[in-house]
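A reminder from the course coordinator: this example appears on the midterm review sheet, so study it carefully.

Given structure:
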């Protein structure tokens, strides 16, 4: 069982995971419009991964007998600042999600909610991996200049 405060926090975070999925889908659409289909593929896979994160939150809340509340998902932007801009915004977004996961963890520590702490540990590890992968891509994109099309090809190979 979790507290009503924790239930609210988890529901709020569930909405952030859905927003992340929506945001990456919007980025995929934008990449298609500028003819970077490899970038679009990468973003679509990322969007699906975020759905998986949301599913983990719902499963945990179900396991704890908590009420899952599906809140309205905010509309993401339509336009972005080119292929590099897309990844820079992804990095900023993931850093924000990391901070929010950390806040959730702090709340679980304050409440002595050990089960939620253990549940969140997977996400803490996942955020390190997500930030690293996106940060590495930003760095390579910055160096690629006119070879950015090679990166489009490489990113298009992402399978999961
Ligand atoms: Fe769910 O990790 Fe990205 O946002």
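Designed residues:
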């Amino acid at each position: 069982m979790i507290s009503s405060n924790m239930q609210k926090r988890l529901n709020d975070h569930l909405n952030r995971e859905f927003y992340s999925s929506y945001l990456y889908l919007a980025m995929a659409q934008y990449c298609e419009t500028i003819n970077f289909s490899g970038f679009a593929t990468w973003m679509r896979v990322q969007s699906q991964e975020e759905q998986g994160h949301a599913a983990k939150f719902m499963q945990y809340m179900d396991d704890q007998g908590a009420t899952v509340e599906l809140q309205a998902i905010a509309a993401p932007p339509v336009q972005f600042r080119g292929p590099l801009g897309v990844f820079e915004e992804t990095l900023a977004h993931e850093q924000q999600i990391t901070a929010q996961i950390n806040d959730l963890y702090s709340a679980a520590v304050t409440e002595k909610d050990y089960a939620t702490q253990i549940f969140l540990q997977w996400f803490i590890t996942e955020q390190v991996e997500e930030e690293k992968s996106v940060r590495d891509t930003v760095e390579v994109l910055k160096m690629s200049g006119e070879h950015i099309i090679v990166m489009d090809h490489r990113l298009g190979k992402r399978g999961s």
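DSSP finds five helices and no strands in the chain. The chain has one domain: 4-155.
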